[in-house]
Amino acid sequence: FFITSYKLYILKAGAAITKTCYLSYHSTKTKIGSEIFDTSPKIQPRWSQRHYILRPETVESYFYLWRKTKDPKYRAWAWEAAKAIEKYCKDDVFSDPLHFSDTILPLNDL
């Protein structure tokens, strides 16, 4: 498999963005990232946008990076997110959005 320097640049940029998304998940009490987060001075949920609406993009990025690199950290990150979503978003019928990603509240917290 031949990879050009441009493709390598794109892969590294994607990995860096994905790491930032991972840190936005990992830095919360629930291990679920908010819809919008700030990165200065530290990665944290934006106060007015602390909800999580079951969007798949971050975990999809873990999958694609694992598929491309075979680096086991992406599988570990995906498993951490899956366990958190199962714990904080699932009820008896279906998965619910999480209203405050950085606060551990019972399901149906609003």
Q: Could you outline the blueprint of secondary structure elements for this entry?
A:
Elements: H1 5-26, E1 37-38, E2 44-45, H2 57-69, H3 72-89
Antiparallel strand pairs: 1-2
Helix pairs in contact: 1-2, 2-3
Characterization of this structure:
- The protein has a two-stranded antiparallel sheet.
- It is mostly helical.
- The chain is 48% helix and 4% strand.
- It has three helices and two strands, in the order H-E-E-H-H.
- 21% of the residues are buried.
- The model is unreliable at 106-110 (pLDDT under 50).
- Strand 1 and strand 2 form a beta hairpin.
- Helix 1 (5-26) crosses helix 2 (57-69) and helix 2 runs antiparallel to helix 3.
- It has helices at residues 5-26, 57-69, 72-89, and strands at 37-38, 44-45.
Briefly say what this structure is.
This protein is mostly helical and 110 residues long.
What sequence of helices (H) and strands (E) makes up the elements?
A: HEEHH
User: What structural category do the secondary elements indicate?
Assistant: mainly alpha
Strand order of the largest sheet: 1-2
Overall shape: globular
Q: Cα distance, first to last residue?
A: 51 Å
Quote the beta fraction: under 5%
Radius of gyration over C-alpha positions, nearest whole angstrom = 15 Å
Provide mean pLDDT, rounded.
Answer: 81
Largest sheet entry: 2 strands, antiparallel
